[in-house]
Amino acid sequence: MFTRREALFGAAIGAAAVAAMPAFSATFAPADIGALAREKVKLVAPPFVHPHDQVAKGGPKIVEFTMTIEEKPVVIDADGTTLNAMTYNGSVPGPLMVVHQDDYVELTLINPDTNTLAHNIDFHAATGALGGGELTLVNPGEQVTLRFKATRSGTFVYHCAPGGSMIPWHVVSGMSGAIMVLPRDGLKDDKGKPVKYDRIFYIGENDFYIPRDENGNFKSYETAGDGYDDMMKVMRGLIPTHVVFNGKVGSLTGDNAMKANVGETVLIVHSQANRDTRPHLIGGHGDYVWEEGKFANTPAKDLETWFIRGGSAGAALYTFLQPGVYAYVNHNLIEAVELGATAHFMVEGEWNDDLMTQVEAPKAIATN
Amino acid sequence: MPLSFLKVASVAIAAATVPIGLSAVSWSGHRLHPVTITVTLPPGSITYSLPGEFLRGEHPQANPRLKRRFNKPIEIMTYQVSVADYADCVKAGACQSPQETREIPPNAPVTGVSYLDASAYARWYSQATGDYWRLPTDEEWAFAAAERFRGGFEGLQADANNPAKRWLARYKAEAQLDRSPDPLPRSRGSFGVNSRGLADLSGNVWEWTSTCFVRATLAADGTGVANSLDNCGVHVVEGFHRTYMSNFVSDGKSGGCAVGTPPDNLGFRLVRDRPGWRKLILGYLGI
Ligand SMILES: [Cu+2]
Q1: Which site among A291, B5, B58, B113 is 20 to 30 Å from B285 CA-CA?
Q2: Given B160, B214, B228, which is nearest A22 (Cβ)?
Q3: Is B79 a residue whose pLDDT tops 50?
Q4: How many Cα atoms within 13 Å fall on the side-chain side of residue A154?
Q5: Mean pLDDT, range B99-112, rounded to an integer
Q6: Residues B198, B210 contacting (CB under 8 angstroms)
Q7: How far is CA A272 from CA A275, A278, A291, A330, B186, in A?
Q8: What is the ipTM of this complex?
Q9: Rounded distance between C-alpha atoms, residue A217 and residue A73, angstroms
Q10: Which residues in B lie closer than 8 A to residue A164 (C-beta atoms)?
Q11: Does the pLDDT at position B237 exceed 90?
Q12: Measuring CA to CA, which residue among B168, B140, B170, B164 is closest to residue B152?
């Protein structure tokens, strides 16, 4: 779909077209950016998160990330329904990036020539240029590097936003993820006391809009572009055919269920780039929940269900108190059970009778 | 080959001597659209700003303005391909139906067509007529559009210290056009003819060209292009203003122009390439 050409226009470009370029010297450019330490981070696919410090060591630094965009078909349910997915780094959602407040995020975004579409990235955590979208549009065969300062702490969505209807189309084709900007001194509870997590999981929720044929069966297409017109029609109806965690029905159940132990504290980061959702941990709670995801705000306590606004990411901290299988769902239960938005935690440990006990097992109703 | 596609001699209209109202009306009684009326543009030149994005170092530049010479005449359709024209291709099974649900007069330009649709039509129409028809290049379109060619809003040099100046300027330039959307395609000829005799240019139907989107880095000395990369998944679309659309997009409101005014509709017209000697000889030999 693309070709390279050298010296395409020859020497024909007139001097009038190209005035001398002033050297780069933006007013607010950090003078000491070159003096900052650099750290290269290798991203990992959700629900896992790359290793990171919860409390920052030392001063702000430049954290380097690389993401390669992959357009590829992915199966999104047990029936083999296929989405012509667009992905950051090959996963839906894209990987969770973790930095500390006042660090600089330096992302190299690669759009290999095996792709067919132009993509970019809009960081809700960044300031200016449509979240970086204006500065990161890359055609197949191109790469770009963006640096922004993570001035606000919290969990934030990033997503592709290449203009017009391409924006929702790319997002509901899988192009979203999240970044977590931790306070330099780590997370705090409602009283300002430090809290830590033993494990972290990143759950990205996606709404998919797969077109159906005359018989009601899901259609598949050779390329994303082939399905564009049909998918736009479904999207405009606003009723998703699938609502899933991490790219497919059942991506976080069974063998892929998330694991924890009684007594461990888990941070669950939940993003939805497009549509409101309401996570709920069946049989558990949110001890401390940053519903809007922004750590400068006091966390809410003891929540049963929390609200994640479309286009945002939230974080919930919970210490497991009982062993067993927990379902983590979007508590629109139709979306959870019928459309796919269910994940599981397998929690090992000792049962606490004080918290719950079955006083009497089921038996025939007593009559006398 | 259906009867209606018997090769019809085109009506060559010399530039600047355009009888207004010249059209195919009353050509043969029942079907009017198969008559392809073309304009033959005599050789000439234009100076126009290239499509695409141009960088110098790391910064966007004004699109270079180049003088382009056309040494041979260009024969181009006077009107955009119509709803009825396109329907014949659909009927023949060579084109997919346009993504168009509105009531549109059959002699209005076909809309709701992607670059892929337009290319399929050109292929089929070439076979049906025995001539070689293709989409115009962007520079051919600009040459043919003459005073109706506007180009894009990309022609601003970035301020190295403040990229936002360029975005704001582009936004203002688009807003200043103050063009309200004009969604419904009209009968051919509704937007009049330009000085070269082409009808309906830069009305409410934008036109696909065969020119790929290009991002080029200008040489440091400003005398050429250091390197460039074509993205042929995106083609230049011309009309009231220039824009860029993915090949599969058929709804103008959909593809480009994240800010600013998107095209009302997407359609196309074709260029006929003169058969070269090679083809003529092969033709005589019956090959
Ligand atoms: Cu994208």
Answers
A1: B5
A2: B160
A3: yes
A4: 24
A5: 91
A6: no
A7: 6, 10, 12, 11, 43
A8: 0.81
A9: 17
A10: 253-258, 262
A11: yes
A12: B170
> According to the model, what pLDDT value does residue B34 have?
54
Domain A4-182 identical in fold to domain A200-348: yes
- pLDDT range class, residue A7, cuts 50, 70, 90: very low
Q: Is A264 a catalytic residue?
A: no
Strand partners, A35: none
Distance in Å, CA A245 to ligand 1 centroid = 19
Query: Which of A220-234, B201-215, B238-252 is least confident?
Result: B238-252
Whole-number pLDDT of residue B185 = 93
Q: Domain residue spans in chain A? A: 4-182, 200-348
Measured CA distances, A158 to A44, A193, A359, B137 (Å): 16, 29, 49, 37
What's the pLDDT score for residue B7?
34
Helix-, strand-, coil-residue percentages of chain B, each rounded to 5: 20, 25, 55
Instruction: Please state whether the predicted TM-score (pTM) of the whole model is above 0.80.
Output: yes
A4-182: CATH, from 3.90.180.10, 3.30.1330.60, 1.10.760.10, 2.60.40.420: 2.60.40.420
What single letter denotes the amino acid at residue A276? D
- CB under 8 Å to B201, separation ≥6 — which residues? B144, B145, B148, B191, B194, B207, B239
CATH superfamily of A200-348: Cupredoxins -  blue copper proteins (2.60.40.420)
- What are B101's two structure tokens? 């649900």
